[in-house]
Design a protein that fits this description.
The protein is α/β, with parallel strands linked by helices and 496 residues long. It has two domains: 15-343, no CATH class; 399-488, Transcription Regulator spoIIAA. The chain is built from 19 helices and six strands. The strands form two sheets. The chain has a four-stranded mixed β-sheet with strand order 3-4-5-6. Strands 1-2 form a two-stranded antiparallel sheet. Strand 4 (410-419), helix 17 (421-424) and strand 5 form a beta-alpha-beta unit. The longest helix has 33 residues, at 222-254. The relative contact order is 0.16. It is found in: Membrane.
Length: 496
């Protein structure tokens, strides 16, 4: 006799066990692995380390974050942003200090995650996110240009064919990712026809062994800590910022929600593991993530397999991978750049409807990111510009209206708006001290006190009236405003 359905044990089968999903995840992981190889080699060169350091980092980051991360289908590996941060350290102190920095950076990311850094994402305006996405697309495209300058003419023909395949094939079938088809077709053609073009092998030596677990060979002293701590902190911030913003972008594309706190400490754990296995550290990669998501991947399996395939390809099949023409991978990344860019944001109709301040924020984020090649600086500048413009806009929404009582003995000032440093600076000039009667009431029923600057302004107003013998009463404050006013009133202005 079988048990009733309600009493049978329920086991949730992982989504990726479905044959169709499994095939999609495997193929997407393979395409991503192929795209990771030249990027990892290039970032190693930027950081000033052996290509093996970048390739090992991409393997350990992808495999670890597949388990610890909070955003399924997002790819983490060695990145240009981390390479730029750590390059000066490598030049001055060597690769062992780099590995120690990566471990410490991972520890700091775990600590920042525990402190709630992921919650700060809510303060990123949409215009900054759009600027971040557009800047990334531009940087991805610009990163491909060196592979298209001073190269044999067949490179351009191969690139054109690859782009045609990736544009046309999805219209016929999506069973196999178009980027994978383009890579296989172009590689087969160049080998069969004997076409001499730059290949992956020209970018640097590929590893022929597995990464080995070890402790960075640095002195465990306070001096070492003072050397690596600034770089570790910068790495932690840049890595988390890029990873969390990429996670938010994938959330929007896939209409799913991710655990940003888990992603934050997951990035930290991945970097700790990477440092102990001789990798240069990393974070989420927008380009490879877009390849993965656009290929249909939605689970952790594709992320895990991208790392596994990467290691298998460079260690076991390195001689084959080395033959892949760079033109094929450049074409893949150009398609990623085109798909990443938010074209709607620059359409004339959108720009006409969008408030000018929003456009300024987006353009400033893009400009600073592209100029500095640093996403963290670009996003920070974008947020600061947004804050300044917002404060300026809100400051003009405060009004002060004065009404004289019928008997002429009292004047009531009604203040409306949000009172903070930007809006309260001019508050003191909104009152008629010389001509007002002996009693003045300041009604804050439609206003809120947000900071000490406002309390100081109210104190200044009160002192100006009292110097003329006028009595001032402040009424209508809500609970928060009352608590802030009572705690600070009379303490912010010197008595002399």
């Amino acid at each position: 006799m079988s048990l009733p359905a309600a009493l049978r044990p329920k086991f949730a089968r992982p989504t990726w066990l479905s044959p169709r999903v499994f095939r999609t995840e495997v193929l997407a992981g393979l395409v991503v692995a192929l795209a990771l190889i030249p990027e990892a080699v290039s970032f190693s060169i930027i950081a000033g380390v052996d290509p093996r350091v970048g390739l090992f980092a991409s393997f350990t980051m992808a495999v670890t974050i597949a388990v610890t991360g909070g955003r399924p289908a997002m790819i983490s590996a060695a990145t240009g942003a981390i390479a730029l941060v750590l390059a000066p350290l490598v030049r001055e102190h060597g690769v062992e200090y780099l590995l120690a920095t990566v471990v410490l950076g991972g520890v700091l990311q775990v600590m920042l995650a525990a402190g709630g850094v992921a919650r700060l994402m809510r303060f990123l305006p949409r215009s900054v996110m759009v600027g971040f996405v557009n800047a990334l697309a531009i940087l991805i495209f610009l990163a491909q240009l060196p592979y298209l300058i001073d190269v044999p003419w067949p490179v351009y023909a191969l690139l054109a064919v690859g782009l045609v395949i990736m544009v046309a094939l999805p219209k016929l079938t999506t069973a196999i990712p178009a980027p994978l088809v383009a890579i296989v077709v172009l590689t087969t053609f160049t080998i069969a026809a004997g076409v001499a073009v730059p290949t992956v092998g020209d970018e640097g030596a590929l590893p022929d062994s597995l990464p080995i677990l070890g402790v960075p060979s640095v002195p465990f002293t306070l001096e070492t800590l003072t050397i690596i701590a600034p770089y570790a902190f910068a790495m932690a911030l840049v890595g988390l910022m890029e990873s969390l913003m990429t996670a938010k972008l994938v959330d929007d594309i896939t209409d799913t929600h991710s655990n940003k706190t888990r992603e934050s400490w997951g990035q930290g754990i991945a970097n700790i593991v990477t440092g102990f296995f001789g990798g240069m550290g990393g974070c989420a990669m927008i380009g490879q993530t877009m390849i993965n998501v656009k290929s249909g991947a939605r689970t952790r399996l594709s992320t895990f397999l991208s790392g596994v395939f990467l290691l298998v390809l460079v260690v076991s099949l390195g001689h084959v991978v080395a033959l892949i023409p760079m033109a094929a991978l450049v074409g893949v990344m150009i398609m990623v750049a085109v798909a990443t860019f938010d074209w709607h944001s620059i359409q004339p109709g959108t720009l006409r409807r969008m408030p000018k301040s929003e456009t300024v924020v987006m353009l400033s984020t893009v400009a600073v990111t592209v100029i500095t090649h640093n996403l963290a600086i670009g996003v920070t500048v974008g947020v600061l510009v947004a804050m300044v413009l917002f404060a300026r806009r809100v400051a003009h929404l405060v009004t002060v209206d004065g009404v004289l009582d019928p008997d002429g003995s009292t004047k009531i000032y009604r203040v409306t708006g949000q009172l903070f440093f930007a809006s309260s600076n001019d508050l003191v000039f909104q009152f008629d001290y010389a001509n007002d009667p002996s009693n003045v009431i300041i009604d804050l029923s439609d206003a809120t006190i947000w900071d000490a600057s406002t309390v100081a302004s109210l104190d200044a107003i009160t002192h100006k009236y009292e110097a003329r013998g006028t009595s001032v009463t402040i009424t209508g404050m809500d609970r928060v405003s009352r608590e802030r006013h009572d705690a600070l009133a009379g303490t912010l202005i010197s008595s002399h």
